[in-house]
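Pilot study result, target chain (313 residues):
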Amino acid sequence: MDASNKKPGWRPSWWRGRTAVIGVPYFWLLLFFLAPFLIVANYSVSEMGAIRVENITSVVDGAVKLTVKYSNYVNLTADNLYWHAYLASLKYAFFTTVFCLLIGYPFAYFMARAKQALQPTLLMLVMLPFWTSFLLRVYAWKGLLDEGGWVADLITGSHFDRVLLWLGVIETQGQLMHTTFSLIVGMTYTYLPFMILPLYANLSKMDLRLLEAASDLGATPWVAFWRVTVPLSKAGIIAGSMLVFIPCVGEYVTPELLGGPTTLMIGRVIWDENFSNNDPPMASAVAVILVLLIVVPLAIFNKYQVEAQEARK
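Predicted structure:
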């Protein structure tokens, strides 16, 4: 098209509505996710020099030479420490997600069914912990669960620590800190708002006339809850579970402060490789596998979910 024939306000096709709206988040992901991930992936196949990580490309006799060191990934398969840390991270993240769902769903349901005037106050109470430093909140649990803390006294006074010992989440009766129990409690408390908020957003938009229709058809409140409310809140359950599970897998601060020798997670392994062992390439290889363990199943799940939605149309 000739420039003289262009109408006032004309814009190229790549700048029009839908393309621009989709392009902004894609650019954000490329800049703040893909680019850092490629840098870490580059480190994972690089050689560690005397001071810094060596480049994988070099110029030798006028030719570009590519040197890829894959031994870091071989070491991951040879050393059981890494696989135990990966499996432990997935296990603790799974149980944290389950407990967040069991606690968060009733709270989100109550918020969604509360009076409209009360809902902003309840929402503020959920978000209130974010006004306090993350480290302070974790340190607070150290005081609560350590010897002399009122939570520890309540558990030991009610002899509930015997149940925890039977479940295998503590090693000694009365010793609650630096155990699986203290780790799960700390991570559940930390990530509970991330479960409540998506569930509340989903449940608050549900059409209550569906529950009235279920009641007219003879369903009890409990049956209506399981047959109507829970299926309609599946999107909120999935969103909340992903928001809790993904950061829990790579958690470092909470296991470091509340966990113990038996609760080694992959975040601690990455820290040790990078700072204690001064081996950024190995730490990068561990991080790359961690990202793949999370992103690949999510991509497959999302693919089948989209196909299922299209099949129902």
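One observation from the pilot: Residues 16-66 form one domain. A full batch analysis is planned for the follow-on phase.
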